[in-house]
Amino acid sequence: MTKIDMSVPLAGLSLKTPVMTASGTCGYGLDLLPYLDLSRLGALVVKGISVEPRQGNPPPRIMETCGGMLNAIGLENIGMEAFVAEVLPRLREHRTVLLVNILGESEEDYARLVDRLSEQEGIDGFEVNVSCPNVRRGGIAFGSDPATLEHLVAFLRPRTEKPLIIKLSPNVTDIVDMAGRAEAGGADGLTLINTIRGMSVDVESRRPHLATVVGGLSGPAIKPIALRMVWEAAARVQIPIIGVGGILSGEDAVEFLLAGASAVQIGTAHFRNPAACIEVMAGIEGYLARHGIQAVRELIGAIRVDPSREA
Ligand SMILES: Cc1cc2nc3c(=O)[nH]c(=O)nc-3n(C[C@H](O)[C@H](O)[C@H](O)COP(=O)(O)O)c2cc1C
């Protein structure tokens, strides 16, 4: 039997497989080393990095929910300089495509991150988390206001030759408009979706489970929403989309590819199985073999939708 081709091109990068980690769900990737060889991943996306270290939110900041989990980690991280000095040298030992997720509270924060990290060997591109409050604009998240989003992307674009992948927030009225704005600003790709705002309450104490009351919902519960957003965005933009939200199996990943994603990320599934990426890759290969498909690329956007049946 001919070997299945799992490679996909993405934003100027060539990925061995379409399966990558989702930011924040496996630290800086080093936590995965006992479970898998990082060079097998399509890409490693590390936990969000800010200019200065962040402590994150007080506990409790994780709560299991039906079909998912709520988190309010608060983007805790070691900061840009410690990442460069302590983590990056260790990641360079592994031959994997490395995407650094970055977050800021102002355009200048993002610019400092892009400037400093672009100089570093071993970083292949950026995933820009825009679900962060913009302190200069009264705390409205960069990813919630179309003009603010486009301005941020256009501001960062000339600062680096590395791919800029914009990770969109689903907590917006019109995800298609946001996708279009990111593309207009010069994004090389999009990641959809970040967590969905949610909450849960302990009825005995009548207190919210999370110290911050509201957190971000992830896991299988959000998969249909993520899929719908990927499908809608894919119809609008030309740039590649990375689908993320509730993927546990190869079939889940295939759904995203068919809906128009060029690659997928595995997030919450890591808390159940740290080798989830490998399981998902095997599941995709199994699907391709079962259907006599030789290259995973053939699945991208290959959903069959009868136009008269669209809602
Ligand atoms: C504990 C936790 C931490 C996360 N941290 C980040 C982060 O630092 N930056 C980011 O862009 N997304 C972060 N996310 C969002 C995930 O990368 C992903 O977009 C989301 O969880 C949906 O995918 P999933 O359902 O497969 O987890 C985090 C998610 C979880 C559960």
Fold-level CATH name: TIM Barrel
Spans of 5+ residues with little confidence (pLDDT < 50)? none
- The total of beta strands comes to 16
Q: Which small compounds were modeled alongside the protein?
A: flavin mononucleotide
Distance between the termini: 41 Å
Care to describe what's here?
- The structure is a single chain.
- This protein is an alpha/beta fold and 311 residues long.
- It has one domain (8-52, 94-196, 216-309): TIM Barrel.
- Helices cover 27% and strands 20% of the residues.
- The chain has helices spanning 80-91, 107-118, 146-156, 175-185, 223-236, 250-259, 276-290, and strands spanning 8-10, 13-15, 19-21, 44-49, 62-65, 68-71, 98-102, 125-129, 164-167, 189-192, 196-199, 201-202, 207-208, 214-218, 241-244, 263-266.
- The strands form 4 sheets. It has an 8-stranded parallel sheet with strand order 3-16-15-10-9-8-7-4. A 4-stranded antiparallel sheet has the order 5-6-14-11, with no helix packed on it.
- Helix 3 runs parallel beside helix 4, helix 4 crosses helix 5 and helix 5 (223-236) packs parallel to helix 6.
- The longest helix has 15 residues, at 276-290.
- 45% of the residues are buried.
- The mean pLDDT is 96.
- Flavin mononucleotide (FMN) binds at residues 22-25, 47-48, 71, 73, 75, 101, 129, 167, 194-195, 218-219, 222, 244-247, 266-269.
List the helices and strands and how they pair.
Elements: E1 8-10, E2 13-15, E3 19-21, E4 44-49, E5 62-65, E6 68-71, H1 80-91, E7 98-102, H2 107-118, E8 125-129, H3 146-156, E9 164-167, H4 175-185, E10 189-192, E11 196-199, E12 201-202, E13 207-208, E14 214-218, H5 223-236, E15 241-244, H6 250-259, E16 263-266, H7 276-290
Parallel strand pairs: 3-16, 4-7, 7-8, 8-9, 9-10, 10-15, 15-16
Antiparallel strand pairs: 1-2, 5-6, 6-14, 11-14, 12-13
Helix pairs in contact: 3-4, 4-5, 5-6, 6-7
The structure holds flavin mononucleotide (FMN).
